[in-house]
């Protein structure tokens, strides 16, 4: 527990540097991209739309996963954390290769 509190204290002290590095990485990641940072929002929305179309009311499913809840409403709360987890894992492997 003490190590965690120390980590929080260090992050608080270095917050300006952390934010500066985060913004620099964000700019580096999307420079040269046709849609830029908008792509960060478009990609998950398109993925959710495709899943909702394929497995939604007219798609390949036998019964609703939760009664009286639409499939898309049920899908989004599960997909958002998955997108975050997937992106973090992909970025971590790239960071290890880039800064070894």
From TrEMBL:
Key word Protein biosynthesis present: no
Transmembrane regions listed in the UniProt entry: 34-54, 74-96
UniProt keyword annotations, A-Z: Membrane, Transmembrane, Transmembrane helix, Transport
An annotated GO BP: lipopolysaccharide transport
Domain of life: Bacteria
Recorded family membership: Belongs to the ABC-2 integral membrane protein family.
PANTHER family: CAPSULE POLYSACCHARIDE EXPORT INNER-MEMBRANE PROTEIN CTRC (PTHR30413:SF10), INNER MEMBRANE TRANSPORT PERMEASE (PTHR30413)
Protein name as it appears in the record: ABC transporter permease
Origin organism lineage: Bacteria, Bacillati, Bacillota, Clostridia, Lachnospirales
């Amino acid at each position: 527990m003490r190590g965690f509190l120390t980590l929080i204290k260090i992050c608080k002290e270095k917050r300006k540097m952390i934010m500066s590095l985060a913004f620099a990485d964000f700019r580096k990641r999307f420079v040269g991209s046709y849609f830029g940072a908008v792509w960060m929002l478009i990609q998950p929305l398109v993925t959710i739309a495709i899943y909702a179309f394929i497995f939604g009311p007219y798609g390949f499913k036998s019964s609703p996963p939760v009664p009286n809840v639409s499939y898309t409403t049920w899908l989004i709360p599960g997909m958002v954390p998955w997108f975050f987890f997937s992106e973090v894992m992909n970025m971590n492997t790239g960071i290890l290769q880039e800064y070894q």
